Amino acid sequence: MNENTLKLILSFIFLAFISMPVFTFSLLDYEQGKKNELLEHQILEKELVKQKEKEQKIYLMGQFEPAERDDFLAVPAEYNVGEYKMYLKEETLEAFLKMREAAEKDKVDLKIASATRNFIYQKNIWNNKWNGIILVDGKNLSKSTPSGLERFQKILEYSAVPGTSRHHWGTDVDINDANPEYFDEEKGKKEYVWLVQNASKFNFCQPYNLKSSERSTGYNEEKWHWSYLPLAKTFTQEYKNLIKEKDIVGFSGDKYVLQLDLINNYVLGINPDCI
User: Fold this and answer.
1) Which of 67, 79, 139, 159 is the most buried (most CB within 10 A)?
2) Any idea where the domains of the chain sit in the sequence?
């Protein structure tokens, strides 16, 4: 091997040696870049999940205006018992109209007495009962029941606390009337019997059936209240997972919420067939 060849080989080795750190650093930079990219993606995914949960909590607690949502429809006036505009989730309304059509063939007339009630609507009902503007069992509770906790529990016999009502979801309807006496009369009895026998065919369930060992907590029996299960089942589970008692605030007497385990005893205190 001549001197020139040896110098060429040594030069090549030298160049290869000094370039190795550059190559190594480049590889390390690439790997670190990929790790940073993965970390940023994970952070973004977590933020998106948090944002989605926040939006769903707002929905579940009724803090929205149904008339402004594309997934809600107005109840047609001819099927609306009330004198105000009511809204339901599109799927719920479609299912109700099919059930109503089937009932008509059996000479049973089903109409909607109450549909979606957002937080503000439910708050007005609750506060008016709390303050005695709406009588409960013929009594002004602000005078007859000075104990705040007892008054809270009395209203809970039939009225949901704002932020906990199934009526927030657009899945639940009160049919024809919302008074127990109505369903003690012949017309109401006939309608209720038809619903018990047929509502499940259209995926409706009575969440507040007669209390028993299977449903020992929650509101009193409501023969008028029916829930569209394909949606309501999902919302019930989401409520259980996302909402905490500390979230249920913003109405008269809200300081008593933590004493009553509202989610377990009322939101989840429903007919087992509806879960």
Assistant:
1) 159
2) 1-60, 66-274
